[in-house]
Amino acid sequence: KTDPCIYIDKDTWNDSMNKLDIENDNQLYYISKPIEPKYFFVKTIDNFLNQEECQKYIKIAEESEYKNRCTDEIGVFSESIKNFQDAEEIFKKVPKHIKEIMKDQPIRLHDTVILTKTPKGKSFRNHIDTPQFISENTKERSKYRLLVYLNNCEGGTTKFLSNSIEPKIGRAVIFEIDNNPHSAETVLSDYKYTLTSDIVCM
What we know:
The protein is mostly beta strands. It is 13% helix and 36% strand. The strands form two sheets. It has a seven-stranded antiparallel β-sheet with strand order 3-2-1-8-13-10-11, with no helix packed on it.
C-alpha cells in the first residue's frame, strides 16, 4: 500500500520502555532507543490552510471516488494523489522558525499526498508511520509527516505520547516519523477529512 504503517502489538507501550515490540505481517520489529516523549518533534500550526483551500482538497477527494485506496482500515476512505500540483505551494507555508528547528534540513514536500475521509465511529489504532520516500542515490528521505485537518470535527483527536491535538479546519501538525507512536480517537462527527504527505529532508 502507498502509506504503510507499523502497528503496535496489543496497544502496549509506556514511557519507560527501552524496546518496543512491533508486529506487522507476522514479523517482529524492535526500536532500540528509549521511548521518551520529551524528545518527539510534534508542532501544531493553526490556519495553515484557509477554508477555501480545505474545501478544494475535500472536493478533489470526493470527486476521485476513492478509487486508489491506501489504507487497510475497514470503512476508512483514502485517496493517494501522485504528482500533486500544490506540493511546492504547501511546503512554502511551513513557517521558517519550524524549518530551522528541524533536526535535518527540509527541502520539499513529497509530491504524493493522501486525502483521507474517516466516518463517524471510526478511529486509528496506535501505530508508527513509515517514510514514503528514501532515495538510494542521495541522502534525501522522508523525515517528517505533515498532517492537515480539512474540516472541524468532534472527536478524532490525534494522540501522541507527548500531547494530543484536536481537529480544526486548516490546522496542521508536523511530526517526526521515526519512533513516534500515535493514534486517532473515534470520530464523533459525520466525517473527518485530512491531508497528509511527507517532508523530505537532506
